[in-house]
User: What shape does this take?
Amino acid sequence: MLVYPSAVDVSSSALRFLSAKLRRHRRELGTRWRRLSAGRQALLALAHLRNGHPYAQLAAAAGIETTTAYRYITEAVDVLATLAPTLAEAVRTASTKAFVLLDGTLLPIDRIAADRPFYSGKHKRHGMNVQVLADPSGRLLWASPALPGAVHDVRAAREHGVIDALAEVGIRCWADKGYRGARGTVRVPYWGRWETLSTGQQEVNRSHAKIRALVEQAVAALKSWRLLRKLRCSTARITNLVQAVLALHLASSE
Assistant: This one.
């Protein structure tokens, strides 16, 4: 296998953050020796998450076996996933904001046509549904566990308890038409063909669209970690990957 140098466009603060967490994790386990230092393990995990490089390629670059690279990366991802904010923590942060933005995104996966639970009719592809909360500036606050792509956004939001959690503390929330019927504090645009809406309703929808468009920044921040653009792992691992990326993103933006 040919080995070549590759840059990872992640801040050094993210590397320091993950390295510190891995060193603490090793102390808790009582680990005496590893093939790679905590810093090298952190770099391996960041390269996988940010660039989407496969385990074999990363293992060759680090001079270790592919199975060892898999174990090291999985361990780092699991450590990060425990650091991601819960919905309750995100709602507490959101309570200091004027409002929040809610949206769902599909993380593409490699699945065959027979895997109907993962097929999104809206996006016409297989994937996992992830709900995202953002602040009024479009900064990512929270990302949900992943559900099969066939689950609609409003159903996913209900299953995660997002709608009830926001309503309980009275936080206003802007969302798109996919959350029609959500009720609570969730605000969606008027439903119907543009030409059938009144002038006032059209103006409300324009204003709503301008506000809600900022959530796309949060979705883009999540998908800037290239591994999430096309997942080829077990669907059981995707939630931990999303939570790991969320933890790294928040740590880097502090």
Summary: Residues 1-82+234-254 form one domain.
